[in-house]
TrEMBL record:
Catalyses which reaction(s): a 1,2-diacyl-sn-glycero-3-phospho-(1D-myo-inositol 4-phosphate)(out) + a 1,2-diacyl-sn-glycero-3-phospho-L-serine(in) = a 1,2-diacyl-sn-glycero-3-phospho-(1D-myo-inositol 4-phosphate)(in) + a 1,2-diacyl-sn-glycero-3-phospho-L-serine(out)
Source domain of life: Eukaryota
Annotated Basic and acidic residues bias: 641-665
Chief place of localization: Golgi
Transmembrane parts of this sequence: none
Gene this chain is encoded by: OSBPL11
Gene Ontology CC annotations of this record: Golgi apparatus; late endosome membrane
Any single Pfam family the record assigns to this protein: PH
Name of this protein: Oxysterol-binding protein
Keywords, alphabetical: Acetylation, Endosome, Golgi apparatus, Lipid transport, Lipid-binding, Membrane, Phosphoprotein, Transport
Residue span(s) of domain PH: 69-166
Length: 699
């Protein structure tokens, strides 16, 4: 069969031969060289085509072309850049490989291509500007802007490119389906193995294979889904501004129990014997008063509890459980409703972890002592960056208890006044409080003492979504901080990411200033070996009244090289766009602050003194206070009795589910104890700004 194509403004194209029996090109045509004398277009060129069909002859070998798939080659104009503009290049459409390649000219065709685009997932778009131009947008993001001699030649290239693109894109889907079938067969074969023996279903290498194969298929599926969305969006027009592509959620329920071989869904829990004390707590929980409780400071004593998390034994022993868990999680899956195995838990609640961020009360109190707005913003940034180190317990990444709805945590710190950095007269705060009667008698009685007191209260105000509210104040210094945080955790393959959604507001009532701040994301890395924590993302601190702001970036470690736990930031005066302080270093090691006057200060966090918090003994705590609520779980973890800890934990979670069902059935809304919902946030019911009038300093 002979095929010939002659393009306007080009020399005749020589004839090509195609074998009908094999569907393959037997002879290649001599490519067209653009006719430089043609007046029809400055972009003159020509194309040659070779088409084949397996349906016209006998059995075809290897690749099967459709009736309209052609290998096309010829000269096109390619837009390079603003300097060189449009240039002639020799293009080859390789249907079998699904590639669009180009060369400097036809003579260099046997050499390595100057450029190559994968057409699977690509979008071919004729331009609206004229009838000659079109673009090839590869799934990788690379783009070729091309120009043919005329509309007919453009249509020929566009149609052949679109056919090739569709064919190879569909081929990916078929390969994905085939791979999924093989992966399912692999999982089935592993799970059909006996539970014991030389080769068992619990073999760690097989569990590792099961986990990694599942994670790989999930990742490929999500990537293919994004590719399809991108392809569809280009065909229908660009996505609206602000649109994001979300990961797909799993379509099947996951396993609930992470002892290998179990099949129960997450919604089901097997009831087990529980301690008498917990049964009584379950019966009484619905009757507990939800009215705010005034904590007597005299009941609090210095904390002697030391729950270090430096033991890797449990993680190593339970590695097979982790593998079984990973094999059933989907990349990007929200872990909010996933019941994680008990052995990965810290021996404290998330509410207490927030309290541990306040372990440097001297730096917190010193913020309001700044003589200028600039000084106060810099002091806040110094305090903010030093708070995360103590919030983590040990090097290993373990997860604090998920607070039960209605759970609370109370504590306080006492700080000698002589240890607070000051740049204003020490009597200013005393004078301010004395002049305003609404301060409580307890706060007034402490004004003349040698210590400042910082009080802290946290409450789990919502279960779905999981939202915590916490509040801290130093009444003597007329300062308080109120925050609400929604923790969103996602499975990221071999790590877990936690986004801290929400914000905090620090109020300095002496100065009439409010500092709004956000929190970084946290990541548990290397969860199959020795898990560790890093922080990541950009956070901001802003004071509208003074015009000062801070931008802080927590850098995650790059794949190759780079330092761990790196943080950088700067404090800026927005009105003048002047940077007044820069900071760099590691958030868990040494921080370097460089000020606008050229001075530099180093802060070694490992040597900063930590003030122990003061808490009430368990017998004086409310049944829903964190330490009393989780006592049995904590004691069991401390004794490495994982099964016992799991049993106690399950009891608490089942009680929460039972009470939630009861509230749903009766239409009874949950009533919080210390925090009130205002807009999208939660505010402490009795903040200082409602008790102490805000002072407006003289200009």
């Amino acid at each position: 069969m002979d095929l010939g194509v002659k393009m306007q403004g080009a020399e005749p194209v020589s004839t090509m031969k195609v074998s009908e029996s094999e569907g393959k090109l037997e002879g290649l045509a001599t490519a067209v060289t653009p006719n430089k004398n043609s007046s029809s277009s400055s972009c003159g060129g020509g194309i040659s085509s070779s088409s084949s069909s397996s349906s016209r002859g006998g059995s075809a070998k290897g690749w099967q072309y459709s009736d309209h798939m052609e290998n096309v080659y010829g000269y096109l104009m390619k837009y390079t850049n603003l300097v060189t503009g449009w240039q002639y290049r020799f293009f080859v459409l390789n249907n079998e490989a699904g590639l669009l390649e180009y060369f400097v000219n036809e003579q260099s065709r046997n050499q390595k291509p100057r450029g190559t685009l994968q057409l699977a997932g690509a979008v071919i778009s004729p331009s609206d500007e004229d009838s000659h131009t079109f673009t090839v947008n590869a799934a990788s993001g690379e783009q070729y802007k091309l120009r043919a001699t005329d509309a007919k030649e453009r249509q020929h290239w566009v149609s052949r490119l679109q056919i090739c693109t569709q064919h190879h894109t569909e081929a990916i889907g078929k390969m994905m389906s085939h791979a999924e079938g093989q992966q399912r067969d692999l999982i089935r074969r592993i799970e059909c193995l006996p539970a014991s023996g030389h080769l068992s279903s619990l073999d760690q290498d097989l569990l590792m294979l099961k986990a990694t194969s599942m994670a790989t298929m999930n990742c490929l599926n999500d990537c293919f889904h994004i590719l399809q969305l991108q392809h569809a969006s280009h065909q229908k027009g660009s996505l609206p501004s602000g649109t994001t592509i979300e990961w797909l959620e799993p379509k099947i329920p996951l396993s609930n129990h992470y002892k290998n071989g179990a099949d129960q869904p997450f919604a089901t829990e097997q009831s087990k014997p529980v301690a008498v004390a917990e049964e009584q707590c379950v019966a009484e929980s619905g009757l507990l008063a939800r009215e705010p409780e005034e904590i007597n400071a005299d009941d609090e004593v210095e904390d002697t509890c030391d729950n270090k998390e430096d033991d890797l034994g449990a993680v190593e022993e339970q590695r097979s459980v982790i593998l079984h868990l990973l094999s059933q999680l989907k990349l990007g899956m929200d872990l909010t409703r996933v019941v994680l195995p008990t052995f990965i838990l810290e021996k404290r609640s998330l509410l207490e972890m927030y309290a541990d961020f306040m372990s440097h009360p001297d730096l917190f109190i010193a913020i309001t002592n700044g003589a200028t707005a600039e000084d106060r913003m810099i002091r806040f940034v110094e305090y903010y960056l030093t708070s995360f180190h103590e919030g983590r317990k040990g090097a290993i990444a373990k997860k604090p208890y998920n607070p039960i709805i209605g759970e609370t945590f109370h504590c306080s710190w006492r700080m000698p006044k002589s240890e607070i950095a000051s740049s204003v007269i020490s009597s200013s705060s005393t004078q301010a409080i004395t002049n305003h009667a609404p301060v409580s008698e307890e706060a007034l009685s402490q004004v003349g003492s040698d210590c400042y007191t910082v009080r802290f209260v946290a409450e789990q105000v919502s279960h779905h979504p999981p939202v915590s509210g916490f509040y801290a104040e130093c009444a003597e210094r007329k300062m308080c901080v109120n925050a609400h945080v929604w923790t969103k955790s996602k499975f990221l393959g071999m790590s877990i990411g936690v986004t801290m959604v929400g914000e905090g507001v620090l109020s300095l009532l002496e100065h009439g200033e409010e500092y709004t701040f956000s929190l970084p994301c946290a990541y548990a890395r290397s969860i199959l070996t020795v898990p560790w924590v890093e922080l990541g993302g950009k956070v901001s601190v802003n004071c509208v009244k003074t015009g000062y702001s801070a931008s802080i970036t927590f850098h995650t470690k790059p794949f190759y090289g780079g330092k761990l736990h790196r943080v950088t930031g700067e404090v800026k005066h927005n009105i003048t766009n002047t940077v007044v302080c820069r900071v760099q270093g590691e958030w868990n090691s040494v921080l370097e602050f460089t000020y606008s006057n050229g001075e530099t200060k180093y802060v070694d966090l490992t040597k900063l003194s930590v003030t122990k918090k003061r808490v009430r003994p368990l017998e004086k705590q409310d049944p829903f206070e964190s330490r009393r609520l989780w006592k049995n779980v904590t004691d069991s973890l401390r004794e490495s009795e994982i099964d016992k800890a799991t049993e106690h934990k399950r009891t608490l979670e089942e009680r929460q589910r039972t009470e939630e069902r009861h509230r749903t059935e009766t239409g009874t809304p949950w009533k919080t104890k210390y925090f009130i919902k205002e807009g999208d946030g939660w505010v402490y019911h009795k903040p200082l700004w409602k008790i102490i009038p805000t002072t407006q300093p003289a200009e």
